[in-house]
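User: structure tokens for this one?
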Amino acid sequence: MPHKAYLGLADLETLASPPPVLRSEDRELYEKIRDRFMACFAPKDVLEWHLVNRLIEEAWFIKRYTRHQTVAVERWYQQSLEFQAQRVKAQSARKETLANSLAERMTQRPPEVADLLHLEEKVLESPAELDEILQRTPTELQHNRALEKSMLFQEQLDKLIASATKRFNDTLELFEHYREGLGQRLRWVAEDILKADGPEHDGDGSPETEGPSIVPSEATDTVTEEVNQFLASAEENK
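Assistant:
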């Protein structure tokens, strides 16, 4: 029966799901971060690759939530500027209505022409005034006010950052446990092979004393159980 071809790490990269990068985010930066993580951890098998991939995603989420804490303050400040601009537009509309009303009476009361021209100048100035409002440089007090307005959202982002950080740390700990446990199991297997190939007795004819196992069965079971729990959790979160 032919053996199935083993998927290498390069093949796994082609099978990976699309990166969690929004269109407003920097895809090139994500790829740089990913390359750094892969070079740092150098996954040796499928499970290690999966764990490192999870670390990369959680690190990206932490970066996203942190960035949006700043974006939230700017958004609230921009909303305050837009409110001021809408108020200017409303005032301009009222002035324009008054100007039209005065225009209808120009033939009857010519002295009011000067007032009409002055009012029209004010109406024409409103677009420039709107541009000036929307382009204002915020002061620290204005940003402080925007931060106060976005405080609830800031707290929600804090919770998301804490949650992503916990998942990152848990995944990192699991990676360390798995890599350490895997290395120990490999040494254990190598030790058994050497014992099987070597002589069964010492030179004096006495039977060779079997050394204790390098890895306690409880430690191996613990690593295996942690890995299974992680994989089950990853499947549920998809």
